[in-house]
Amino acid sequence: MSVLLDDPVPRIAARLRHERDSRGWSLVDLAERSGVSKAMISKIEREEVSPTAVILVRLAGAFDLTLAGLLLRAESRGRLIRAGEQPVWRDPKTGYLRKQVFSRPDHPLEIIEVELPARQRVVLPASSYAHIRQTVWVRTGSLVIIEAGERHVLGAGDCLGFGSPSEVTFSNETGAPCVYVVALARS
Questions:
Q1: Torsion-angle region of residue 65: left (phi > 0), alpha (psi -120 to 50) or beta?
Q2: What pTM did the predictor assign?
Q3: Region label for 103, one of left (φ > 0), alpha (ψ between -120 and 50) or beta (otherwise)
Q4: In sequence order, which residues have a C-beta less than 8 Å from that of residue 149 and are 6 or more positions away?
Q5: Span 83-186: which CATH code?
Q6: What is the pLDDT of residues 97-130, one digit of tens each?
Q7: Which segments of the chain belong to CATH 1.10.260.40?
Q8: Does the pLDDT at position 156 exceed 70?
Q9: Which of 23, 87, 165, 172 meets the CB 3.0–4.6 Å disulfide criterion with 178?
Q10: Cβ–Cβ contacts within 10 Å for residue 161, how many?
């Protein structure tokens, strides 16, 4: 994986303020639309905390964006994204490492590489899947995905396509990291 980019917190904070301001939304408006507390949004915008993946997904969803779309807007890039320039973000709560391999606002496909540390899990709300179709391909390790109450255990090389939007849990129940690729298309 690439090294982490310079501290992404200021860019994320600035992008959230910009998205909110461009819509004429108050902190209360964004809080109501995202389900994230006004206090937490304020702390993120003031660069006092680094948001978790779940919080960023909820905020992105409120703006009708995917997480990749929000992060892409926080990073300005051209069409060619060299391996060493692909943005990497780490969830401060779980250590989940997310590398944006490919994403462009004018293209329906996004590719993300994720490293989920040992014995960690991330639960994403159904709203994060409202406007996308997604497939997960496990590269190394083992990944448990719980989608709409159905449990799937994936090993290296296994691939799962997602169904209707529902809450999804990504869980690494082993003692070793799991690396997987997410390919998603906007619908």
A1: beta
A2: 0.66
A3: beta
A4: none
A5: 2.60.120.10
A6: 999 898 776 677 889 999 999 999 999 888 777 7
A7: 9-74
A8: yes
A9: 172
A10: 10
Domain 9-74 maps to which CATH number in 3.40.50.970, 1.10.260.40, 3.40.50.1000, 3.30.1660.10? 1.10.260.40
Residues 52, 96 contacting (CB under 8 angstroms) = no
pLDDT band at 75 (very low <50, low <70, confident <90, very high): low
Distance CA 92, CA 32 (A): 24
- Give me the helices (H) in 35-154, please: 38-45, 53-62, 67-74
On whether the CB atoms of residues 125 and 167 are closer than 8 A, the answer is yes
Using CA atoms, how far residue 18 sits from 5, 38, 171, in Å, is 21, 16, 33
Q: Are 165 and 126 in contact (CB under 8 A)?
A: yes
The encoded tokens of residue 38 equal 């006004």
List beta partners, residue 182: 112, 136
